[in-house]
Amino acid sequence: MKKDKKFLIPFYGLKIGTHHFTFEVNDTFFEKRDYSILKQGNVCFEVAFEKKESMLILDFSLNGEVVLSCNRCNDDLCKKVQGEYKLIYTFGNEEKSSDTIIVLHPDSYQIDIEQQLYEFITISIPSRAIHNENECNQEMLEALNKYLLLKDTNNNKDSDEIDPRWAALKGLN
């Protein structure tokens, strides 16, 4: 995946203190990602970037909408996303990083926040995304219900019969 320069923050020339950045994420942002659960979207990030002597503190605030698949009928579903997140960048030679603390090489002069923006959007969507009542694709729901009914009737029939292999194991006690 090719890096997009619009998600780079060059901090080398910034003065110590707080700086504000705005980043817009649109459909092309999601199209670049293979196997993404998100198809489209428009999300705005407001970033408060605080530069200190030995660390960088970024406070992210996101607000927007994304398009993903409904968990019930698999049709497209538009969901609002919003959230606030914090990342701390420190400088050092060790490769240790955590969810909120990222270690940069001492010679670094810019940070790329593209992957972090995608992750923040992804964790902002609800764990179960479904349409409101009666908005799902009815044909798909009927097909699912037909399959589920067939599966239930097969399970009930099989649950009365005991597999002879398991019956033999019961006699071992």
Question: Keywords, please?
Answer:
2 domains; alpha+beta; five-stranded mixed beta sheet; 4 helices; two-stranded antiparallel ribbon; flat; 173 residues
Describe the global form.
flat
Strand order of the largest sheet: 2-3-4-5-6
- Low-confidence parts lasting 5 or more residues at pLDDT below 50? none
Strand/helix succession: EEHEEEEEHHH
* Structural domain count: 2
Q: Strand portion, in percent? A: 35-45%
Give the terminus-to-terminus CA distance.
59 Å
Give the biggest beta sheet: 5 strands, mixed
- Helix residue percentage: 25-40%
- Count of extended strands: 7
Mean pLDDT: 86
Structural class of the helix and strand makeup? alpha+beta
Question: How many helices does DSSP assign?
Answer: 4
Our Rg estimate from Cα atoms comes to 25 Å
Account of the protein in words:
The protein is an alpha+beta fold and 173 residues long. It has two domains: 5-124, no CATH class; 138-170, no CATH class. 27% of the residues lie in helices and 37% in strands. The protein has helices spanning 27-31, 114-124, 138-160, 164-170; strands at 8-10, 17-25, 38-51, 55-69, 76-91, 101-104, 110-112. It has a five-stranded mixed beta sheet. Strands 1-7 form a two-stranded antiparallel ribbon.
